[in-house]
């Protein structure tokens, strides 16, 4: 493994480095948990956010609760368990909007 999160063959070694389709397939097959993928993504955000400043608001506790719940349910569709964000220009009832 290299420091890039890829093996010497260029294969992702960290869940956050997987494409959405690869992560979905791994979740569907039971090789990757929703919580495991989310924790990897949150780790990547934590490592880069100071420089990138891409997020207005994060709610890791809520996201982790949701991921744990999804890990306990049947996988119903290709997006099951994939982390996603809401652009802050959309009004939501429970998140800040710019």
Describe what this molecule looks like in 3D.
With 98 residues, the protein is mainly alpha-helical. The chain has helices at residues 20-29, 34-52, 60-71. Helix 2 (34-52) runs antiparallel to helix 3 (60-71). The radius of gyration is 15 Å and the shape is globular. The relative contact order is 0.15.
Per-chain topology:
Layout: H1 20-29, H2 34-52, H3 60-71
Structural class: mainly alpha
How many helices in DSSP terms? Answer: 3
| Biggest beta sheet summary | none
- H/E series: HHH
Shape: globular
Task: List low-pLDDT spans.
Answer: none
**Beta-strand percent range:** under 5%
Distance between the termini: 40 Å
Average of the residue pLDDT scores: 89
Helix content range: 40-55%
For the secondary structure, the number of strands is: 0
What value does the Rg take, in angstroms?
Answer: 15 Å
Notable characteristics:
3 helices; 98 residues; mainly alpha; single chain
What would a concise description of this structure say?
The protein has 98 residues and is mainly alpha-helical. It is built from 3 helices and no strands.
């Amino acid at each position: 493994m290299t420091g890039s999160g890829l093996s010497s063959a260029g294969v992702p070694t960290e869940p956050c480095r997987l494409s959405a389709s690869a992560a979905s397939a791994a979740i569907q097959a039971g090789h990757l948990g929703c919580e495991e993928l989310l924790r990897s993504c949150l780790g990547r955000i934590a490592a880069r956010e100071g420089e990138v400043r891409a997020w207005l608001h994060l709610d890791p506790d809520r996201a982790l609760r949701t991921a744990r719940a999804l890990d306990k349910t049947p996988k119903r569709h290709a997006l099951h368990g994939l982390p996603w964000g809401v652009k802050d220009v959309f009004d939501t009832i429970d998140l800040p909007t710019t």
